[in-house]
């Protein structure tokens, strides 16, 4: 599972994968064994590579208040698909990019079509999981770069959107 957290203006991308003793945390080049035991009422025990730390947490929407080792940290969970999917290309253009390699399952829009924030642009499949690529803001579909059934690599431009008024 791919996750993206923002802490003090810096994005941290991490992967969690299941293993027999809990999870493996992939953070940069490091792979750490992790486990979390929820003890109820915003408390838990976080174990990283065998060392356990009591934690307290409160979740408010996409904001996580985490108290560990005497410090409180405020994290913002960012949907990795949304965060990665749209990158500014230039004046008035946006590019929906592939957050992972995969194949286009369904295209939901056509070039010239006006879209609003949240409009489904296409459905992709990666590792047998389907994900919807959505437009984070309004504009007009300029170009669809891959047809249904075509494969793409990580970071490939899937859809280009022109901002209205440009």
How does this structure look, described?
The chain has 1 helix and 17 strands. The chain has about 170 residues and is mainly β. The chain folds into 2 domains: about 1-80, Glycoprotein, Type 4 Pilin (2-Layer Sandwich); about 80-160, Beta Barrel (OB fold (Dihydrolipoamide Acetyltransferase, E2P)), CATH 2.40.50.100. An 8-stranded antiparallel β-barrel has the order 1-2-3-4-5-6-7-8.
Topology summary:
Layout: E1 2-7, E2 10-19, E3 22-27, E4 30-40, E5 43-48, E6 51-60, E7 63-68, E8 71-78, H1 80-85, E9 86-90, E10 93-97, E11 102-107, E12 114-115, E13 120-126, E14 129-134, E15 139-144, E16 151-152, E17 157-162
Antiparallel strand pairs: 1-2, 1-8, 2-3, 3-4, 4-5, 5-6, 6-7, 7-8, 9-10, 10-17, 11-13, 11-16, 12-15, 13-14, 15-17
Summed up, what is this model?
With 166 residues, the protein is mainly beta. It has one helix spanning 80-85; strands spanning 2-7, 10-19, 22-27, 30-40, 43-48, 51-60, 63-68, 71-78, 86-90, 93-97, 102-107, 114-115, 120-126, 129-134, 139-144, 151-152, 157-162.
